[in-house]
Amino acid sequence: MAVDDITPRATWDALRADPDAALIDVRTNAEWNFVGFPDLSEAGKEPLMISWQVFPSMQVNAAFVDHLRKAGLTPLNKLYFLCRSGARSLAAAQAAQAAGFAHSFNISDGFEGPPDAEGHRGQVAGWKAEGLAWRQR
């Protein structure tokens, strides 16, 4: 079974409509602190911060699926995975799906999306570029 990509806007709509939907931000602590993260307060939610790779080694977090379960998520939840540009989140969604979380989705273009012509992220595609709410710590 393949993991479906979903746009940031469609993710936002799903999070607002489904009380059991959750956004899992799989980036690192440094990214959450310095780049920002989705603000889901209007949907009455907080993103779950569970790194897919551990900084600074960037080795895959062997306890990732355990962290999903410890956060109270079940195979009935719809899970939306987010990273910088959509690559780590796809791997995380695939791991979740393989562990029995059938409703796992990859947020296409992630939080910042690809770089623009000048090498800056957050302008072309992704959560920030779509004008969705976000904040910094």
Automatic annotation (TrEMBL):
Residues 17-118 form the Rhodanese domain. InterPro entries: Rhodanese-like_dom, Rhodanese-like_dom_sf, STR4-like. Pfam families: Rhodanese. GO terms for molecular function: transferase activity. The keyword Cell cycle does not apply. Keywords: Transferase. Transmembrane segments: none annotated. The keyword Glycoprotein does not apply. PANTHER family: RHODANESE-LIKE DOMAIN-CONTAINING PROTEIN 4, CHLOROPLASTIC. This is Sulfurtransferase. The lineage of its organism: Bacteria, Pseudomonadati, Pseudomonadota, Alphaproteobacteria, Acetobacterales.
